Every structure is written in structure tokens, then in C-alpha cells.
Amino acid sequence: MNEQHKKKTSKFLSYVLRHHPEIIGLHLDENGWADVDELITKSTNDSQGFTFEELDEIVQTNDKKRFIFNEDKTRIRANQGHSIDINLALIPQQPPEFLYHGTAQRNIESILEKGIEKRNRQHVHLSQDIETATKVGMRHGKPIILTINTEKMFDDGIEFYLSENNVWLTDFVDIKYISQ
């Protein structure tokens, strides 16, 4: 699979599995799982087109580990980032002392006024390291990395979850926990 086709297919999978399964008539269960055969068939009908082998390659090689198969590879879902209402069955966990949030320069004023909101997603995404947060921030313009005092948030009763691909998730980050 060439890199251009892989990237295009990965973006399509993110769109369908995280935001709009209905565009191809795909059914997701309450936990966000889709039947692999149905996904391949309906994607082909939508002229996106990929084989199981290509799908497997995308799941295995995606640098952000956006997707996961069940044990027998008959079902697939996105690890996080959904704008649709699903239950990822995440278990609350204690985060490290600090996590990081990468964003674009143009978002700083709003964040420092309102905090970090999940907006149309189910959670705010936080990174374990500055390098990952920088990559996230670069997708949206000049990156700004914010340090989040997650130990204090946790001590204040705020829940955190760790996704399958090691992205920390929470509902909201108040400005009192943010430093630049």
C-alpha cells in the first residue's frame, strides 16, 4: 500500500469511526465497535476501497495508534477522539504529575480565558510528553505547549482515563491547572 493511499484511507477511517459512520451506512455498537467485513464492504461501495490486509497494515503501522481490532480482528474501533456518543468503557486512572496539551497559537487567548474544553469531542486529549504535544499542536498552526498540573486536578477529584493508545483523557481543564 503506497503512503498516499494509506494516509487517505486512515483519514477516511478516522472520519467514519470517530464522527460519521452514517455516511457509508455503517453501524457502530454502543462501545464504538464496527464489523470489519461491513466496514470493508461499505467503504468499497463508497469508492474509498481497501482490503482487509490494507486495513490491518493501517491499524498496525499508524503512528498514533488511532485504531484497534478486537482479539480475532472481526471488529474495529477508533481508540478516542469521537464526536459521536459512545462508551469506550474506560476506567478512571491516576495520571502522572504533569501532562501536556499541544495547541495552536490562535487558541491560546480562548484557553487562558475559558480553560481547555472538549468542544465537539467526548474528552480533552492530553499527552504524556512534550514531543507528542508539539506534534499535535503543529497540526493546527504554530504549536504552543501547555503544562497541565494533573496531579492537582486528580487531588481535586477530577477523573482521568488512559486510552488504548496512551492518550490521557479528561472532561475539561480549568485555567487554574494550566501553565505555559
Automatic annotation (TrEMBL):
One of its GO terms (molecular function) is tRNA 2'-phosphotransferase activity. InterPro entries: Ptrans_KptA/Tpt1, RNA_2'-PTrans_C, RNA_2'-PTrans_KptA, RNA_2'-PTrans_N. It comes from the Bacteria. Its EC number is 2.7.1.-. This is Probable RNA 2'-phosphotransferase. HAMAP family: KptA. It is an enzyme of class 2 (transferase). It holds the Pfam family PTS_2-RNA. The keyword NAD applies. Belongs to the KptA/TPT1 family. Keywords: NAD, Transferase. SUPFAM superfamilies: ADP-ribosylation (SSF56399). GO terms for biological process: tRNA splicing, via endonucleolytic cleavage and ligation. Removes the 2'-phosphate from RNA via an intermediate in which the phosphate is ADP-ribosylated by NAD followed by a presumed transesterification to release the RNA and generate ADP-ribose 1''-2''-cyclic phosphate (APPR>P). May function as an ADP-ribosylase.
